């Protein structure tokens, strides 16, 4: 009858062999990664040397200083009219709301969401705006009319809506 003691010894020997193999593989892997030589490369920094000019203007002495220059970034475009706009696809054409979003964002508008309208039967594009933002309606209509046929516009958007204007993209 084999003893339990002999079985335990075989299990321990087997675990030891597996541990040695695993440790050896880990050592070889780490050694190959860290064996690549790391060399520091010194990059020379150019310095400006003052030059002599034959100008009667008073010369400037000392070390020249760099003057920061402001560069306008694309994100610095002001948000037009402070409107937050929701765009809905009302024409079944895939990506219509996203295309309108791109057009309006390029013109400086803040588009907060896109989605599908309640149906896809809108013949023309509709604009619904909050009554307190009515002054922005004409500009929004003008900016959209280059790409879409504008149908109805109204200032009947619920004042509690999370956005200031809703644009439903129609088929035309």
Structure description:
With 172 residues, the chain is α/β, with parallel strands linked by helices. It folds into 2 domains: 1-33; 78-169, Alpha-Beta Plaits (2-Layer Sandwich), CATH 3.30.70.2390. It has helices spanning 4-34, 96-106, 137-145, and strands spanning 84-89, 110-116, 125-129, 150-154, 165-169. A 5-stranded mixed beta sheet has the order 2-1-5-3-4, covered by helices on one side.
Question: Main traits of this protein?
Answer:
elongated, 2 domains, five-stranded mixed β-sheet, about 170 residues, alpha/beta
The shape, in one word, is elongated
Q: What number of structural domains do the residues give?
A: 2
Order of helices and strands: HEHEEHEE
Assembly type of the chains comes to single chain
CATH class group of the largest domain: Alpha Beta
Strand count, sense and barrel status of the largest sheet are: 5 strands, mixed
Query: Mind telling me the C-alpha Rg?
Result: 35 Å
Going by helix content, strand content and strand pairing, the class is alpha/beta
Supply the number of helical segments.
3
Overall helicity = 25-40%
